[in-house]
Design a protein that fits this description.
It contains 2 helices and 5 strands; from the N terminus they run βαββαββ. The chain is α+β, with helices and mostly antiparallel strands. A 5-stranded antiparallel β-sheet has the order 2-3-1-4-5. The longest helix has 13 residues, at 10-22.
Length: 79
């Protein structure tokens, strides 16, 4: 299952990418999907296997997640 995390700004999404890469957590930096109605143009995409480690790394870095979605079929559902 795929999850996407939004951070409210491109700057914060890039910071999250850096934090997660330093923690060796696989991710994709993607344009925000239109159906997810995010204010930021970028999101972090993660698999379920990497989600807990990513959330822990972001929490320890005090970077707040603004929006959290999971992909169900072809649509994103807010978590």
């Amino acid at each position: 299952m795929e999850y996407i995390l939004g951070f409210g700004s491109a700057h914060k999404a890039l910071k999250a990418e850096d934090i997660l890469k330093r923690a060796l957590i696989p991710l994709k930096l993607l344009p925000a999907p239109k159906e997810a109605s995010l204010n930021c143009g970028l999101v972090i995409s993660l698999t379920q296997a990497n989600l807990d480690a990513a959330l822990a790394a972001l929490k320890s870095s005090n970077l707040k997640i603004k929006s959290f979605y999971k992909k169900e079929g072809d649509v994103y559902v807010k978590v």
